[in-house]
Amino acid sequence: MLCFLPGVGEIARVAAQLxxxxxxxxxxxxxxxSAAVQDAVLxxxxxxxxVLATSVAESSLTVPGVRVVVDSGLAREPRVDHxxxxxxxxxxxxxQAAGRQRAGRAGREAxxxxxxxxxxxxxxxxxxxxxxxxxxxxxxxxxxxxxxWGDPEATGLALLDxxxxxxxxxxRSVLTAIxxxxxxxxxxxxxxxxxxxxxxxxxxxxxxxxxxAGAEVVALLSEEAPRExxxxxxxxxxxxxxxGDAYAGRWxxxxxxxxxxxxxxxxxxxxDRSVGLVAALAFPERVAKLDGGSYLMASGTRAAxxxxxxxxxxxxxxxxxxxxxxxxxxxxxxxxxxxxxxVARSAAASLYxxxxxxxxxxxxxxxxxxxxxxxxxxxxxxxxxxxxxxVRDALLEGLRQEGLGLLRWSPxxxxxxxxxxxxxxxxxxxxxxxxxxxxxxxxxxxxxxxxSRARRRADLARIDAGxxxxxxxxxxxxxxxxxxxxxxxxxxxPSGSRIRIDYGNPEQPVLAVxxxxxxxxxxxxxxxxxxxxxxxxxxxxxxxxxxxxLASFWKDGYKGVRAELRGRYPKHPWPEDPATAEPTRHTNAxxxx
Length: 593
Hints:
Elements: E1 2-4, H1 8-18, E2 24-29, H2 35-43, E3 48-53, E4 68-71, E5 74-81, E6 86-93, H3 96-104, E7 113-116, H4 133-136, H5 140-148, H6 165-177, H7 189-196, H8 201-209, H9 215-222, H10 233-242, H11 246-259, H12 272-282, E8 287-291, E9 294-297, E10 302-304, E11 316-323, E12 331-338, H13 341-347, E13 352-361, E14 364-373, E15 376-382, H14 388-402, H15 411-427, H16 436-441, H17 443-446, H18 450-453, H19 457-460, H20 465-469, H21 483-486, E16 490-492, E17 498-502, E18 510-514, E19 526-527, E20 530-531, E21 533-537, E22 543-547, H22 550-565, H23 588-592
Helix pairs in contact: 5-6, 8-9, 8-12, 9-11, 10-11
């Protein structure tokens, strides 16, 4: 029986679930399987066998004796994160073509049966073919070859599928960084030499820049090393030197080829320092500094070592092989080498930059002069003469993060903003939008020059927001002079008092006034044509009634209020007919005097 599963993890789990089947042999076949296991699968035998395999068994291997195929309908496909320069394998539904290929394993030697682990109705909805490699792979080597042919964009090639624009852009970025192509994307002399090496351009760069002394390490990185070699590149190199397996044999042959390429110095063994240098030269954006419990790579991606890794605790490493599982933020380190900061700086020199960093952090402007290796901070010191433009941007970021409350808002300033919001809602242009987003968008119009003189949070707190906000009034059209007419701060009531209007709710502002001061007024007061919501207060200043229709209140609601309150407040007037009564802000005793 041949069972197709998507990856090594699933194969191991199914093998564990099968347990001991007595006289049935369970074999696990995948790309990392040892030569002995692969030989056992290909030789066959008299015992019944269950072979758990990845897609590698679809066509590259002929497994003798297969009479039954069980197809999970799943496969692993590579996905490259071009922004981070990392790859990952993702589980996808196997294509119809893969299903046919897998089914064919059951009938290669004799009639057989296929069990497919999905509904028959789903079969027609499966993709017809696997994703073309050109759409999912790292295209750096392809892009270099195209540049050497004089077609950097690969537009003149009769390809079944054109290369993805993003993948080609990422590839050109790498090639430019290692000097393989010029600003026009044409291959340089160095690029031609890299193309002739028969290596990935990254590894070729490391070989050239070490004058061939890194041939052993480059050969180790040219093919995925056995998992049992571990994640320490220097230790893996020692394992390859003493190894007697098929991988070690292929490694030695590749070392001989590289040393015979004309790019090598006389043969010499790499020490631990040169191992790290090769990894850093090949993957400069993956030099990484210990930062908390993980490593921060120069690319900005965090990377984590496996439990028990001998590399744990090293201040700097160069990550040679890593992946980023789909949906995960951290990369997983599979092979790396210890380096020192000098090696990291040298290998990733193109990523070094020094400059001012001014931003809003911890509630204030933070200004520093910072040295960085990509995303890695190397050194920083306080900056007292920061660029005013950067300071201004940091202050604006603070206002966006913490709000315009960082300015000094007097009570009058807050009322002005509410009045403008009311007019904007009910009258529209030319009255300004004073929402937070709108004020941020027009900061140049109303907060200058105060903002340009500010340097820190304390300076913002000294800016008079009301004075600044007045700059947005429609002065040019002449409407600014109508502000007090259309949205007055106070309004006269029948008693003669001038009561402040609360514009906190722009839909319908509130007038809170003692009930006795509104006697005789039949229509509710209004501003800009909008009736005010009148809060009629008791003598104690608490709302006795709320209305936008005074006439109806005097007719229907007043009697209940009068019956409830006149016993509690006998010194205040409570006439039976408030519509004709004399308004007053005084008590009966005061009136009699």
